[in-house]
Amino acid sequence: MRIVIQKFGGTSVASPENRERAVQKIIHSIMNGFKTVVVVSAMGRRGEPYATDTLLELLQQVHMDVHPREKDMVLSLGETLSSAIMANTLRSKGYDSVAVTGWQAGIITDRNYGNANILEVKTEYLTDVLKQGKIPIVAGFQGITETGEITTLGRGGSDTTAAILGEALNAESIEIYTDVDGIMTADPRIVSNASPIRQISYSEIFQIADQGAKVIHPRAVEIASRSDIPLLIKNIMNDSPGTIVTARSIKKQPVRSSNTDRIITSITYVTGRTQITIDTSQGIEEQNDILLRLADNHISIDIINIFPDKMIFTIEGNLTDKALAVMKENNYKCKVIEKCSKISAVGERMRGVPGVMSRIINALTAGKIEVLQTSDSHMTISCLIKEEDTIPAVLALHEEFKLYMHE
Ligand code: ADP
Ligand code: MG
């Protein structure tokens, strides 16, 4: 059986017009001889009637303190509804189709409500549906514990569902349909001349996703990569080729002339970070102690720079109060800058190329953007800046590396 996974994101299932487009994509792969397993997100985005946030607000109107178990039950509803609607749409066109929940699809998770980890996938149900010649429409983002509690898979959960089913069913490819022309050189909502990236490796897209581009979730990339299934990211609105993600490095690909000196592939950002500077003049033991205490309190730190007499690190903004409480408890003096953004330049080819950091710093300072901290790994350079500088910073780096000339 040649299987393809087709995942349709929020906007792709939100309107009858887009659902019609989704149906055309499904029929197209069936015509090409594939069995297709469809995965759907909830319909629409924040503020829209059936979006997941809207459903949660309904529950919070009763009481803000919702038990995680019940919260996950409600969070999962949007996708359930969406799968039934898509199945009905297909059936109305004469295609035999069944809505399948995450639990029917056999996605077994741990009990980590809100961000559950998949332990195994029992594929019998889906295989059966496929053998009967029906099109399964799986509700993304959902799982179930071994003891029967409904769980959700966290941010980008439908991407994860698509990837894990691709792996479990040995699919030939995983197609992710969204509202942009694939992975772009920057978030197209910020950079109007951002261009689509035609081909990219798993490791590069993992970094791009991990550093904030929400077009695909890093966990989904990780799963596709370990089972070496090509990922295709495409626009539901048109027939543009989209982005293909495979293990092959871009260096081995025939590249067009404008592409050959591509050092940076994409500029990404995350907002809502906090920078904390701690005076640690008593040295290494004090520094170790702070790191241990943060870890004990499940506060993960991001960019970190350690000096003989001080330590600077960033954390997620919503953990600021918790981190400060830990510091206060232990009499550590600290300086805090809230509302920061981390902006990153990602590119496999920057490895060993001198001067990239200096180009980044120059471009930012030329735009009068203050750099609060930096970090540098083999394919990512990140700078911490003030949140208000996010848009000019993304634009400045996109210009500096001429990413609008990508193709
Ligand atoms: P879906 O509901 O289809 O999963 P998402 O909202 O999760 O869609 O992801 C698509 C969005 O990701 C786009 O609308 C775009 O604004 C954003 N995005 C951020 N960075 C990038 C990037 N580098 N390339 C493409 N899209 C990006
Ligand atoms: Mg998404």
Describe the structure.
Mean pLDDT is 92; it is low at 250-260. This protein is α/β, with parallel strands linked by helices and 407 residues long. The strands form three sheets. It has an eight-stranded mixed β-sheet with strand order 3-6-2-1-9-11-12-10, with helices on both faces. A six-stranded antiparallel β-sheet has the order 14-15-13-16-18-17. The chain has two domains: 3-252, Carbamate kinase (3-Layer(aba) Sandwich), CATH 3.40.1160; 266-401, 2-Layer Sandwich (VC0802-like), CATH 3.30.2130.10. It contains 13 helices and 18 strands. Strand 7 and strand 8 (150-152) form a beta hairpin. Helix 7 runs parallel beside helix 9, helix 8 runs antiparallel to helix 9 and helix 12 (356-366) packs across helix 13 (390-400). Bound molecules: adenosine-5'-diphosphate (ADP) and magnesium ion.
